[in-house]
Write a structure and sequence with these properties.
two-stranded antiparallel sheet; 38% helix; elongated
Length: 104
C-alpha cells in the first residue's frame, strides 16, 4: 500500500463542495453537495476525516488484545478471537492489503 496524506484529516467547505484535507494541506477527497439541504456529503466527509484516528485506535486495540486474556470483573474469561479477527480485517483493508476482486 502506498503512502497516504498525513493525519489528522480535516473537513473544509469551499462553495458547494466539502473536502477532506490532510495535515500537510493535501486534498484527500472532495464531495460535491447536491443541494443545500443535503448533509449526507458532509457526514461522509467527517467519517472519512476520522479514518486515520480510527485506524490508529484499531491498531492499538488489536495489539493489546493480541497478547492479553480478557477477564470480566466477575472473573469470566472472554473469547475475543472474533474481535481480534474483525480488527485485523479492518486494519488490513484500511492499509489496502485486503480487497474485493473489483477494487483497484
Amino acid at each position: 500500500m502506498g503512502k497516504h496524506a498525513l493525519g489528522p484529516w480535516h473537513v473544509r467547505k469551499k462553495g458547494e463542495a466539502v473536502g477532506v484535507i490532510g495535515d500537510d494541506s493535501s486534498v484527500v477527497a472532495v464531495f460535491p453537495r447536491k443541494n443545500n439541504s443535503d448533509d449526507t456529503r458532509i457526514n461522509e466527509a467527517y467519517l472519512l476525516a476520522a479514518a486515520p484516528l480510527m485506524l490508529e485506535a484499531c491498531s492499538k486495540i488489536h495489539s493489546i488484545l493480541e497478547n492479553s486474556l480478557v477477564v470480566t470483573p466477575e472473573g469470566f474469561k472472554m473469547n475475543i478471537s472474533d474481535i481480534q479477527k474483525s480488527l485485523a480485517d479492518a486494519i488490513l483493508r484500511a492499509k489496502g492489503y485486503r480487497k474485493t476482486p473489483h477494487e483497484p
